[in-house]
């Protein structure tokens, strides 16, 4: 049976202030940390989660470790970094560092700052390849490549064994992942707003997903209560 997904956009980060998109792989602002605390307090499904995923970028890792720290502490399996969930554009703020810098420098710094009760062994790097931050080929910032990447991620999610999965990613990419046609140009990204809208903690059910089993593609359908904040 395919999993139920709890999808969250990252909280407010440094590049969201005055559109400073030139900042490489920015971290969360104090407001972003407050949003993480609010999410940790109000998310009602911590005890259901059996797998946590995020893209390999500092602000996504920060919200994952901070907002879901209690859940991660209880899970035996590590949480996985998923490069297929990266943002749709190639500006410095949306381009990650190499896996070597991520593993040796950035993630240890995040753990030190957050004062977590568990270590970096909780994070699984198995899906992160050398070219993940190249923004070329499979990871190119063009609509066709992004659609293919989103489709590949849906297929992968469909086949995992976990039943309740958190995915922390970017607002622009979410339009491709969910095949959301309500925006005219998802390549423009999504501006940061409040917690309830910017994190977009959307509950997506598997009931309609199963109907696509005979298709060459897998599609995600949202529970009716998801958009109205059932996860907040």
Automatic annotation (TrEMBL):
Pfam family membership, one: His_Phos_1
SMART domains registered for this protein in UniProt: PGAM
A GO molecular function held by the record: phosphatase activity
Signal peptide: none
Alphabetical list of Gene3D superfamilies matching this protein: Phosphoglycerate mutase-like
Listed GO CC annotations: cytoplasm
Cited InterPro entries: His_Pase_superF_clade-1, His_PPase_superfam, PGM_Phosphatase
PANTHER family, per database record: BROAD-SPECIFICITY PHOSPHATASE YOR283W-RELATED (PTHR48100), PHOSPHATASE SPAC5H10.03-RELATED (PTHR48100:SF54)
Full protein name: Phosphoglycerate mutase family protein
């Amino acid at each position: 049976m395919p999993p139920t997904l709890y999808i969250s956009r990252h909280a407010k980060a440094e590049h969201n202030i005055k559109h400073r998109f030139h900042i490489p792989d920015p971290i969360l602002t104090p407001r972003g940390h407050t949003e993480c605390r609010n999410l940790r307090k109000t998310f009602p499904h911590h005890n259901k989660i059996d797998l946590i995923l995020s893209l390999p970028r500092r602000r996504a890792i920060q919200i994952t470790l901070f907002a879901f720290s209690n859940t991660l502490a209880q899970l035996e399996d590590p949480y996985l970094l998923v490069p297929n969930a990266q943002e749709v554009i190639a500006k410095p703020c949306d381009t990650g560092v190499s896996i070597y810098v991520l593993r040796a420098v950035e993630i240890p710094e995040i753990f030190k700052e957050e004062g977590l009760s568990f270590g970096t062994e909780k994070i699984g790097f198995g899906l992160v390849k050398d070219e993940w931050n190249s923004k070329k080929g499979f990871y190119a910032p063009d609509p066709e490549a992004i659609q293919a990447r989103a489709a590949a991620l849906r297929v992968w999610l469909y086949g995992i064994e976990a039943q309740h999965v958190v995915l922390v990613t970017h607002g622009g990419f979410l339009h491709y992942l969910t095949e959301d046609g309500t925006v005219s140009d998802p390549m423009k990204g999504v501006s940061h707003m409040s917690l309830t809208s910017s994190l977009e903690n959307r509950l997506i059910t598997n009931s309609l997903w199963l109907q696509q089993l005979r298709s060459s593609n897998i599609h995600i359908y949202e529970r009716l209560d998801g958009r109205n904040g059932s996860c907040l």
